[in-house]
């Protein structure tokens, strides 16, 4: 079932690529149908999930390298698989028929969907790496082909930057192979390499860490993100922020913590420091932005910083284990929550672009007049992003704060207390967005606005509804995540 | 009954109304009052049956709701205040009624969740949602940037305090292994002290105590029913409730109880003086709220749980009553300037009498409610510390003075020559745009509003019955205060009564001794700036002058004209400064803006500059260098590139050799091929990029 979910969109992408003459409506219909089918598969997998690593499949691929086609999902990857399926469907619904070169556009998104699902399901490092790199290629073409503004430059920059990061990642993976004799993640986690050579383990962690840090992204390797977002089409931004950024954070939790536990523990403070800096720095730089999309992009740096902070705290072996479980659960919850909320925010920013062809907050104002529904949706998404209880961001961030501080280690408590301040800055900056663009008197571009169209509403509303569901009744998600998070903490504590 | 119904019913009803939007505008006020009535019934049922419910939200930590005595008293107070306000609002019509009523109901539900939560997580959820609703309600008339900013100021300021609560949750996990409020007092040190510090910070912020008081001054920008609810039983009351709830923790730390007691007493005194210097009825009432909540905070510090709960309930009735009266006058007369409201209480006898009941109770006149409850707080403070008692007693004198002043102005004979009402043009004209305040009403208070006022007035008068020993005993048992001496000492009551009556008489004599002022300027055209620029009446400033900035800024109160009992000029230079400081709420907002609000965006801009120039600049520099190297190597011919690739391959092969694993002997060729393939892919992508760039 898992492999079907991965290869169905890939097959559909190939078909669409082979039929460039297909009408826009037909291409969009194929896109929506296939995405809906994948979402159905993901839902079925969630409903039938038995616990542990499920839906596992292992095929021979490059036996001499100990690399195989090995996929499966557990409580950490299944929510991300479901998020991927949902977000791609929502992007399909969001995209209008008037998009140029629709078949190719749909093909690239279906390709990206297959790659993303494959990455979250991969239990083999080489397979993981292939999907990791292909995601960069796919997103590059989406930005360059359907973006706006200085898209070629932004896309190239995105590509080269993340590609260089992925080369570091490859080096790290090769190092792991040399140490463990296999690329299989399950085997590597069972017998972590370089137990006796802390120096080499540190170097390998550095390589892997750089690869994932660029993708996450964390300060100071985040500067590819704002231009890529600004010039990407709305659906591309939603996928980039909602899914592709998760690959970095997910990779840390999936590869770095279980496979290099000793090195992770030794360098936990470095990770914590990077996380805290990303939280505070991302929030402050976002506060200074005038461009709506750049602003949301920097809040991503802030939000992903919380994840890195939590994963760093997980490596504090002396800390209370229940608290560290809580922190890692919070980190995974934050991945899901950020996907939902930032996906929604970028789609809403796309609506703004569609009407005004500008993201400049100072030229907007009083949009609540012509577009009350758009304003209400943006307000909910903004409050979700700033961590208002009742919405998913709060559940994630509360667990991270309580977990990091709750480890009972003074340094972690200080780091957690500093990170809490990020919540205040994001509150200020989102209220500023609402005040500048949506409330108050009309701005220069306000006359161009009409309220959301049905397809836009249909795309954004489910994301916010799910954010609300997670915020009010988090148990269904947390029941899935908590055992996997506890397993990661156990693995990293060895 | 199920404990979750209590916050659940208003939350669901409110959410449904808010989502229904304009379609539900017509039915919303009645539905809102109905939902609030159901909530009152639920609160009473909960007070009787004492339900509890637990749930596991995050991790292995138990969360839950429980209605104990303190929660029961609070829940009933909150539900009744919300019902009274929403009943009044059925006749108030602020525009967009569905959104308004929905937000008010969610606001109420959040407060009910806060007062029944048994752990920090659920408490924080109710706490923060309440803050967000206060933002949406204060900025309800969203077309006015000043009102939106006031809402933002309230949210950001209270959230700054809330950070303490977030951190306290972590400290609780570290020190007590759980989030339950009951377990905090037994947490290990230093986590117990840190948790107490976080909770105190959050409570002082939410309750608008020093130094956070300024946000409450701005919170007047919302519709009057919002003020009536926000100032009485919700929001500001939440901080005091939390301190009462965690009193064992405060006592356990050894320092927090003292700190809290002094913070409350000093706020009560300082903001009481601020209230005395206000020229605007709603500002006077707002400052008085800070001061009265100060008594609650003082009660928490003095471990007087029952007295604090009684004062909270009585103050909620009094303050919602006073704000609804002020709102009624604003809606019909278009002003809240004290000078312009001279004699307003004579126009509508019921509102006037209700206001008098509230103001006399606020002044501490026997046998009204606040006389007793404040006396109970002072009774608990007496044995603690004499200076603390002195400050608190002085604060209660200011309460008597500002209440007497407001009462005497509103019941004074209208100045000769004052117009009978606002200019006619403010009642006519085009309907206001959605998101703006409604036009002035020609009709008075609706019948439902009258019922609401009368009910609240009965509360303001009748809650004094708690002075009777049997009632006092029952109340103490209900709110679960440890039986520590008497609830309120007769001596304390006698002293308070004599002092309050003396102050009332003194203020009356002073006002009588001075000639009645000329017709107030606020109602005359073109001369209305001092109060028109107050946000309470921002709309007029905007319309008559097109002066949006003026509507945003709060007017300077310098230069005494009519109406003030404390004219400038009769004091020395320092006296004038002092008066201005009080009129301007001790410049707290200016200080906060200068210390926090201004520097933060500056820091943000500086960091953004660093981000663009330094970090990204470094990346661009590296990229340029790489391109230059590529050019050089291009000139040298393909050999160099090939050499690099071969070098990489060789290095990888060497690594493979290091690993000495003969069974993977072919690995290095795979890696070399992979590296070459990646480089080729990079070149292709680069070429596409170059082709696409202009």
Automatic annotation (TrEMBL), chain A:
Its EC number(s): 1.6.5.-
Domain called NADH:quinone oxidoreductase/Mrp antiporter transmembrane: residue spans: 122-418
Predominant location category: membrane
Membrane topology designation: Multi-pass membrane protein
Gene Ontology cellular-component terms listed: endomembrane system; membrane
Gene Ontology process terms (BP): ATP synthesis coupled electron transport; electron transport coupled proton transport
InterPro entries per the UniProt record, alphabetical: NADH_Q_OxRdtase_chainM/4 (IPR010227), NADH_UbQ_OxRdtase (IPR003918), ND/Mrp_TM (IPR001750)
Molecular function (Gene Ontology), one example: ubiquinone binding
Domain of life assignment: Bacteria
Swiss-Prot/TrEMBL keywords: Membrane, Oxidoreductase, Transmembrane, Transmembrane helix
Compartments reported by the entry: Endomembrane system; Membrane
Homology family: Belongs to the complex I subunit 4 family.
Name by which UniProt lists this protein: NADH-quinone oxidoreductase subunit M
Organism: Bailinhaonella thermotolerans
UniProtKB/TrEMBL annotation, chain B:
Subcellular location: Endomembrane system; Membrane
GO cellular component: endomembrane system; membrane
Residues in NADH:quinone oxidoreductase/Mrp antiporter transmembrane domain copies: 117-392
Annotated transmembrane regions: 30-49, 69-88, 100-118, 124-142, 163-188, 194-216, 228-246, 252-277, 284-309, 321-341, 353-372, 384-404, 451-471, 491-509, 670-691
Region (Disordered), start-end ranges: 420-444, 515-563
Topology of the protein relative to the lipid bilayer: Multi-pass membrane protein
Leader sequence residues: none
A GO term, aspect molecular function: NADH dehydrogenase (ubiquinone) activity
Biased composition (Basic and acidic residues): 524-540
Name the record gives this protein: NADH-quinone oxidoreductase subunit L
GO biological process assignments: ATP synthesis coupled electron transport; electron transport coupled proton transport
Top-level division of the source organism's lineage: Bacteria
Alphabetical UniProt keywords: Membrane, Transmembrane, Transmembrane helix
Composition bias, Basic residues: 541-556
Lineage: Bacteria, Bacillati, Actinomycetota, Actinomycetes, Streptosporangiales
